Amino acid sequence: MSEEKEKSVLDYNKLGLKSGLEIHQQLDTGKLFCRCPSVLRKDEPDFFVKRKLHAVAGESGEVDVAAAFQAEQGKEFEYQGYEGNTCLVELDEEPPHEINKDALKVALHIALLLNCKIVPLSQIMRKTVIDGSNTSGFQRTVLIARDGFVETEQGRVGIESVCLEEDSARIVDRDKGIFRLDRLGIPLVEITTKPDIRSAGQAKEVALQIGEILRSARVRRGIGTIRQDVNLSIKGSERVELKGFQDIRNIEKAIEVEVLRQKELIEKNKSVKEVRRVLADGTSLYLRPMPGAARMYPETDLPLLKIPLALINEAKKTLPRLQKDLEKDLIKKGLSEDMISQLFKQGKVEEFMDLIDVVKNPRLIGRVLLVYPKEIAKKSGLGFEKVSEILSGDVLSHVLDNFKKKKISEADIKGVLEDIVSGKDHKEAVNLDKVEEGDVEESVMKFIKSKPRLSCNAYMGLVMKEFKGRISGKQVMEIIKKYIK
What we know:
The chain is of the alpha+beta class. Strand 7 and strand 8 form a beta hairpin. The protein has helices spanning about 5-10, 10-15, 65-70, 100-115, 200-215, 250-265, 310-315, 325-330, 335-345, 350-355, 360-380, 385-390, 395-405, 415-420, 425-430, 435-450, 455-465, 475-485; strands spanning about 20-25, 45-50, 75-80, 115-120, 120, 125-130, 140-150, 155-165, 170-175, 180, 185-195, 225-235, 240-245, 275-280, 285-290, 295-300, 305. It folds into 3 domains: about 5-300, no CATH class; about 320-430, no CATH class; about 435-485.
């Protein structure tokens, strides 16, 4: 029987598949144990440092097998840093600061959406990691909640824990041991399910459900902001951890390939507990031995993390809504599926909801948030991100409020935004000079005389450009039609 044929008839129940997920998601806040911003840099680093890392005994008094394996490599690591977002905490030259309150609140939101019980008192721990990804040789992590669940078509899957931890340094050159410190310390929420998953399809369903919950919270978006691992075993085999999923569409294939690999090992009386890196085709490569509890020991520079009932109640009151529920509301408000998709993709749903309170015109708000900034960015050459930064929520709210008060027309809005992007103060930009109808009529006649035989729409475009949108297209067309029959 061919491999493809065998994969298509895998009976996971008969094979006794047990699987669980670990999902790591960056949060959209400052760093976890210092006050540096969570910004990834593309420019040249400001400084370089070198370190050698050593394995230490964990709380059990033993050195973890995975840490010992890394220590045997005897590598020296180089770290690249930036003055703007790298401080002495990342360099392990200063004790960590108090945990970031914004990150803690986001973690509480995620935990509650996963039906978890919040842990009111928790010990911040150090997890030995000496592969070069941390300057200190350990990663700080703290338990936030436990015993949650998500429902799937094949039954309930338990959530073992929700932890808050530091992200690792960014790899520049793995072989040479070069890392960048801009990512080190960015808050990660780590979600670990119980080994309740019984099929590849169920694994994908759980990943999608957790992904929807994460997208509803204040998390970072884009490539590299979320990482997913799969732990699995079948009857008669040891547990294996598969790392490296950027795209959850690969989970089903990777599980199928790994189950087949484990079947072959069982037939040869070979089975090893290990960590493997998943490749694009679903196969995997050996990375290191499976780590255990021996790598954990208490953080001595920070007190116990206390999560008071008042903070939990506040998190419940401000719980974000799930994306699917927001999508239903946005459809009811008259937005197209494409515009809804763009709002979520660009993280502008919250801004949309704020602006809808200013003016009850969903389509106009959609254009103001998504269409006009894109057009202005292309025209100005500043780039969409820079234009969006200039046209902040407060600026857009002010412009729309003046539209609501009829100080500017809908046709004026884009021109006003262009003026603001070009450097004009937003309060000054809405104070438009009134355009007299006679001035518009004079402009129409000028263009008809200088550019004969154009279409009505062409003349309207020329006039609108001259007055920078400070007059309605309807009014211009009415004037044009008086001269062109």
